[in-house]
Amino acid sequence: MDYTEKVLSEETLFKGQIIDLAVQQVALPNGQTASREIVYHHGAVGIIPITADNRILLVRQWRAPMQRETLEIPAGKIDPGEKDLDQVALRELNEETGLTTQKLVHVTDFFSSPGFSNELMTLYYTDTLTPVTHKRSLDDDEFLNVEKLTLEEAQAAVADGLICDAKTIMALYYWQLQAK
């Protein structure tokens, strides 16, 4: 069976700095029609930074959609026109932790929530961190604290719900596999 849906029309409802929202009318494989609400996003990168003493660096910050603090791997959005994702990852690592690396390993790319969004996340790993010469400033609306956790402490933070996002949970699974 061919599962392709043909887009009949698309209306943009909102254009923002981070996302655009559209509604599509589509023809389904069975000939019926349906509506699809789609969030368009430029994509993002995340970094799994492991220190020399085998701890992961996580960022504690407030997340407005959930109205609570979370612990997450350093990450950030890809700006329109940015093509070198390694450089985006190094920028975010610098900005959020004040560190850099000469060894940035691409782990995988994944869609964060393909049921409604095209956001593609690129995940990197490094275990060779060094302080930067010139730390980039955080965004004006960004407030965070860097924390170092062991794998066991990070797993406990997942169980407690403090680590609750897919990219960070995936990062912990990857780190755990590297440790074996």
UniProtKB/TrEMBL annotation:
It comes from the Bacteria. Its cofactor is Mg(2+). One of its GO terms (molecular function) is hydrolase activity. InterPro entries: Nudix_hydrolase (IPR020476), NUDIX_hydrolase-like_dom_sf (IPR015797), NUDIX_hydrolase_dom (IPR000086). Keywords: Hydrolase. Residues 40-178 form the Nudix hydrolase domain. It comes from Latilactobacillus curvatus (Lactobacillus curvatus). PROSITE patterns: NUDIX (PS51462). This is ADP-ribose pyrophosphatase. The keyword Transport does not apply. SUPFAM superfamilies: Nudix. Pfam families: NUDIX (PF00293). GO terms for cellular component: cytosol. GO terms for biological process: nucleoside phosphate metabolic process; ribose phosphate metabolic process.
